[in-house]
Amino acid sequence: MKQRVTDTPEAVLKFAPKDRPSDDNDPTDQSGRAVVALLQQAASQSNDTCERAMSLAHKLSVQLRAAEDQINQLRGQLEFFQNRATRAEAEAAHFRDRTTRAEDWLLRIHNEVEQAFFQKKEREPRQASPQRSFYAQPQAKDASDPMIENDRAGRRR
After folding, report:
1. Is 20 helix (H, G, I), strand (E, B) or coil?
2. What is the pLDDT of residue 157?
3. Does the structure show a pLDDT above 50 at 45?
4. Is residue 119 scored above 70 in pLDDT?
5. In terms of pTM, does the model score above 0.90?
6. Vertex 148: Cα angle to 155 and 142 (nearest 5)
7. Cα angle for residues 104, 110, 114 (degrees, 5° grid)
8. 144 by DSSP, 3-state: which?
9. What is the dihedral angle through the alpha carbons of 95, 100, 101, 102, rounded to the nearest 10 degrees?
10. Residue 145, SS3?
C-alpha cells in the first residue's frame, strides 16, 4: 500500500471519492456541461450588451455635453440681446422725452410769435402799405405812358 504524506486523518481518507472513469453518457455530467455552456453564453451576451450600453452611454454623454454647451451659448446670446433691447428701450425713451420737449418748445415759440406779431397787428388798424405786393394786379396807367403806347402800337400792326 502507498502511504500518503499528508496531515489528513485516515478516517477522512477512507471516504474520499475514488477516481472513476469518465462517462460521457452520464446525464449529470451532460447537464453540468450544458449549464456551464449556457452560463458562458449568457456571460458573453451580457458583456456584449454591456459594451453596447457603455458605447451608447458615451455617445449620449457627448451629445448631452454638446447640448449643454449650445444651451450656455444661447443663454449668453439671450442675455446679450436682452441687454441690447433694454439699452434700445432706454434710448427710445430718451428720444421720446427730447421729442416731447422739442414739441413743447415749438408750441411756446409759435404762441410767442402769434402774440408778438399777429395779435398786435389786429389791434392796430391796417394801413395801406406803400409797397405793392409782387402778386398784386397792376393798376391802370394813364394813356400818356410811353411804354403802354409803344405796346399798343406794336399790337395793332
Report:
1. coil
2. 43
3. yes
4. yes
5. no
6. 135
7. 145
8. coil
9. 90
10. coil
pLDDT classification of 77: cutoffs 50, 70, 90: very high
What string of H, E and C letters represents the secondary structure of 73-141?
Answer: HHHHHHHHHHHHHHHHHHHHHHHHHHHHHHHHHHHHHHHHHHHHHHHHHHHCCCCCCCCCCCCCCCCCC
CA distance 4 to 10: 10
Beta-carbon contacts of 24 under 8 Å, excluding residues fewer than 6 positions away, are 30
Kindly report the backbone phi and psi dihedral angles of residue 60, in degrees, each rounded to the nearest multiple of 5, phi listed first. Answer: -65, -35
Do residues 143 and 149 lie in contact, with contact meaning Cβ atoms separated by under 8 Å? yes
Q: Name which of 13, 66, 101 is nearest 74 in CA terms.
A: 66
In this prediction, residue 6 has a pLDDT band, given cuts at 50, 70 and 90, of low
* Rounded Cα gap, residues 79 and 87, in angstroms: 12
**What is the spatial distance between Cα 109 and Cα 101, in angstroms, rounded to a whole number?**
12
What is the mean predicted confidence (pLDDT) over 24-42? Answer: 91
User: How far is the C-alpha of 109 from the C-alpha of 115, rounded, in Å?
Assistant: 10
- Mean pLDDT for 106-110 is 96
